[in-house]
């Protein structure tokens, strides 16, 4: 009896639900007319399903309309929070209608409790289906968007147009960092909503409008290299190379390195031709310990005590290493010319490690 009465008021209750959603949720109040029309249609369909639930005739297949509605909200740009809030509003509005019919029918206490149980069970079922439909479509779009971004980036890295995907507004930069987990990539997508973001083997590649690619957008997300700005897709191949090289200079103290920030010597290395690289590669390199000693000695302005403190060793250890380096290389790091030569070697071989990995 109650189910029949509610079914007869389907259009009326649907309109009441739509009004309450718009009144209570700012995101819907600002929504365009087509979304509001879909809101009314969805509210009316929900009322019909709830009436059927009271009769025990509702199954998962019948709730496909709810999952489809949820998928449309994803495409309409309605947030999950606002969407589920709308369902709570709708179900409370429907409960008010149930209470009206229960009062009108003068139900007994047991009948009222049974009505409440049926209503709550139906509301719980439909809300869970709405959330499931929304999250499933959102996940599908994330995968599809990631695939499209990756395909577009791969095309541009091979010198081809990006395809149908829309590029960020020019000038844009290319950013290369270490591969991140999905949560970190979601955080980057939130901070750079207009960017192309894709995982490429063991790295993440981002093509973003230069003005958007701020340090704040990348901070605490890992080590990144940032290219010079490009004006169209034809510059992406070179920009990727620039960003990869800049990333090679990133450290814990300097996690984000833009190509424009590199020293004059580092920039010369970036543009070195194959012959120059071959000559550089033929020079003997320092081992890790000696390279660290030279770097610390240079950073300490040739002060042995400060270099030792930075390396966490005794000053005599630093003196011994410097003497050994001078003997083995023919360049004394305790002199200006020798230190410059050895420090340049450190930079050279760091550069070669980066370029060989590209």
UniProtKB/TrEMBL annotation:
Pfam families per the UniProt record, alphabetical: GGDEF_2, HTH_30, RsbRD_N
Give the RsbT co-antagonist protein RsbRD N-terminal domain ranges: 12-147
The CdaR GGDEF-like domain is annotated at 172-246
InterPro entries noted in UniProt:
CdaR-like_regulators (IPR051448), CdaR_GGDEF (IPR041522), PucR_C-HTH_dom (IPR025736), PucR_C-HTH_sf (IPR042070), RsbRD_N_dom (IPR025751)
Q: Where is the PucR C-terminal helix-turn-helix domain?
A: 292-344
PANTHER family given for it? CARBOHYDRATE DIACID REGULATOR (PTHR33744), DNA-BINDING TRANSCRIPTIONAL ACTIVATOR ADER (PTHR33744:SF1)
Q: What is the similarity comment for this entry?
A: Belongs to the CdaR family.
Its recorded name reads Helix-turn-helix domain-containing protein
What is the species listed in this Swiss-Prot or TrEMBL entry?
Solirubrobacter ginsenosidimutans
């Amino acid at each position: 009896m109650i189910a029949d009465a509610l079914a007869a008021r389907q259009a009326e209750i649907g309109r009441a639900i739509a009004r309450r959603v718009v009144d209570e949720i700012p995101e819907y109040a600002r929504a365009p007319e087509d979304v509001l029309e879909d809101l009314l249609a969805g509210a009316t369909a929900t009322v019909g399903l709830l009436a059927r639930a009271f009769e025990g005739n509702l199954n998962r297949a019948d709730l496909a309309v709810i999952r489809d509605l949820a998928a449309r909200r994803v495409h309409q740009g309605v947030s999950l929070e606002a969407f589920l809030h709308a369902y709570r509003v709708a179900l409370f509005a429907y409960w008010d209608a149930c209470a009206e019919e229960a009062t009108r029918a003068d139900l007994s206490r047991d009948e009222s409790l049974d009505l409440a149980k049926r209503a709550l069970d139906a509301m719980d079922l439909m809300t869970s289906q709405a959330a499931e439909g929304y999250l499933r479509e959102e996940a599908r779009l994330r995968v599809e968007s990631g695939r499209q971004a990756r395909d577009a980036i791969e095309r541009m890295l091979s010198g081809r147009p990006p395809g149908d995907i829309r590029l960020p507004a020019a000038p844009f930069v290319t950013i290369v960092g270490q591969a991140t987990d999905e949560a970190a990539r979601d955080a980057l997508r939130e901070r750079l909503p207009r960017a192309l973001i894709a995982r490429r083997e063991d790295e993440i590649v981002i093509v973003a409008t230069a003005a958007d690619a701020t340090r704040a957008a990348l901070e605490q997300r890992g080590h990144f290299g940032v290219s010079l700005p490009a004006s169209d897709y034809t510059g992406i191949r070179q920009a990727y190379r620039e960003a990869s090289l800049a990333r090679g200079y990133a450290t814990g103290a300097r996690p984000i390195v833009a190509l424009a920030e590199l020293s004059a010597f580092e920039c010369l290395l970036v543009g070195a031709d194959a012959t120059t690289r071959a000559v550089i590669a033929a020079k003997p390199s320092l081992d890790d310990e000696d390279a660290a000693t030279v770097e610390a000695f240079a950073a300490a302005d040739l002060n042995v005590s400060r270099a030792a403190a930075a390396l966490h060793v005794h000053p005599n250890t630093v003196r011994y290493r410097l003497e050994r380096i001078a003997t083995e290389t023919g360049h004394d790091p305790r002199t200006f010319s020798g230190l410059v030569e050895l420090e340049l070697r450190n930079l050279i071989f760091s550069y070669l490690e980066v370029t060989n990995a590209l």
